[in-house]
Amino acid sequence: MHLLKTFVLSSVFLLNISPCVLGSALEVGPNYRRQARETSDPEPASSASIPERTSSPARTTGSDTPASRSTGRNGASSSSPTTRAKATFVDPRLPPGGVAIKTPITTSGSQYYKIGQKITFGWNYTSLIVSPSAVNVEAFCSGNSQTYTIAQNLSIAKPSVVWDTGSFQPQNGQPPLAMGTYTLLIYDEKSAITAIPVAGNLAPFNGLRFGMYTPKPYTPLAGKLD
Predict the structure, then answer these.
(1) DSSP state of 102
(2) Which of 6, 15, 21, 178 is most buried, with most CB under 10 Å away?
(3) Taxonomically, which superkingdom (predicted)?
(4) Cα–Cα–Cα angle for 111, 113, 116, rounded to 5 degrees
(5) Percent of the chain with pLDDT over 90
(6) pTM for the full predicted model
(7) Over the stretch 6-38, which tens digit does the pLDDT of each residue have?
(8) Cα–Cα–Cα angle for 104, 110, 114, nearest 5°?
(9) First to last CA, the chain
(10) Local confidence band at 201 (pLDDT 50, 70, 90 cut-offs)
């Protein structure tokens, strides 16, 4: 009987304190879990300790950047294609280009000119596939082994020249025009008179020879004829 009474009193006591204990547990539980979470999670570093990430300044294009480079929509640079002149194909079996003299008329025999007069040279181009932009015209004197310049960078569209031997001034300390046999030279101004002929291109020309002389002053005959 005594044990039954003790058990009943203990049950009543537990029923009286259970709500209090349970309420305290409910109130303490969340706080405890929040404190535990805050303790276990490391506190993020201060914003002052994290270096601020800034964007790099835009790169400017200097004067040494090729003008042909540009930036596409996706930011990738690209180069514009360079226009190149197409090379003209020449059959190597074809003859080289040449010069056909029109003036003076070579069929009329040897040509002689007095030093001091004007001499006209005229010609046509033949078999040209690759035309030079200009030619040089010179005269080589066999008497003193000098080459005299008649015209430089003469347009190929004007195949003629007038050589005024009276006002001609030798260059680079050359001696004056001498009597003797001369050879007319015509060649591509980007080449040389000694260049090897190439098919379809202007070959150096040295096919016209002419003479130049200085007339002697008139000398009267001495005495009278009987």
Answers:
(1) E
(2) 178
(3) Eukaryota
(4) 165
(5) 50
(6) 0.60
(7) 555 555 455 554 544 444 444 444 454 555 455
(8) 75
(9) 206
(10) very high
- The radius of gyration of the chain's CA atoms, rounded to the nearest angstrom, is 54
- The whole-angstrom separation of Cα 138 and Cα 190 is 15
Q: Are residues 200 and 106 in the same domain?
A: yes
Beta bridge mates, 120: 162
> Residue 170 sits in which domain range?
98-213
Residues 19 and 111 in one domain: no
Tokens of 15: 């029923």
218 within a domain of the structure (yes/no):
no
Q: Helix, strand or coil for residue 52?
A: coil
Residue 29 lies in a domain: yes
- The beta-strand segments (E) located in 80-179 are 98-103, 112-114, 118-126, 134-141, 146-155, 160-164
Q: How far apart are CA 17 and CA 69, in angstroms?
A: 86
Q: Do 29 and 120 belong together in one domain?
A: no
Encoding tokens for residue 131? 């035309």
